[in-house]
Amino acid sequence: MKKEIAINYIETHNLIGIKAGLNRETFLDIWMIVVNDRIFARSWGLAEKSWYNSFLQDSKGQIKCGENIFNIKAIVPIDKNNLTSAINNAYLTKYNTDHNIKYAKGIIKAKHIEKTLEFIIKE
Description:
This is DUF2255 family protein. By secondary structure, this protein is α+β, with helices and mostly antiparallel strands.
């Protein structure tokens, strides 16, 4: 049930709050997409102190979908290479508005593909 609520929200909203690790106080709004009922995001900023690198150190965190907050586990998907095309298409489809399209075209480049994570909702 939690997963369905999160997926519905992510499919219908452009910015989703994320908190990497359990020590962060605030949520950061990022782009997320859904492919095959699985939730993914790619890091735009490639900084050392990013949400992506925080998750690599500690896979626990939360996402905020409206008023709902879900505990998650972040993983590097083992089938990332097989999903890359579908994830790229999901980004280009969801974020195809005038001001977002240049970023959507950017986030499907190799340096961002390498920074793909999947978020597993803890039921």
